[in-house]
Specification:
Length: 118
């Protein structure tokens, strides 16, 4: 959306009309239609870029953002591993019997029905 806004700000409204015609069946460009909820943001970005208040993210900026995301993801993964290790320390070891259990005697009162029905 920001890239399209940048191109429209540089090339004018005719460029937007061409994009609408060429990409009318592409749902990625729905923000170009006035009824779309993201259209206001798109218009805002076009206006900002025309006024020179905002500059589009360069490839180096997006690469830096990707690096920052990877670093944050690594910190989150490390924190998860640390928390899992703490939880494993808190868990008690399962009970392991040293002797086999005593023989089990099955005791049940027979039902009060005839042998034929049983």
């Amino acid at each position: 959306m920001d890239k399209t806004a940048n191109f429209v700000a540089r090339n004018g409204p005719d460029f937007e009309v061409r994009i609408k015609q060429n990409e009318q069946n592409n749902s990625k460009f729905n923000f170009l239609s006035p009824g779309d909820p993201y259209h206001a943001y798109y218009r805002h970005k076009v206006k900002e870029m025309q006024d020179g208040k905002s500059t589009p993210m360069s490839h180096t900026g997006s690469a830096a953002a990707a690096e920052g995301f990877k670093a944050n993801q690594q910190l989150i993964d490390d924190a998860k591993k640390k928390k899992q290790a703490e939880l494993l320390k808190q868990v008690e070891l399962p009970f392991v019997p040293k002797e086999p259990p005593p023989e089990f005697d099955f005791i049940a009162d027979p039902p009060s029905i005839s042998a034929h029905d049983l």
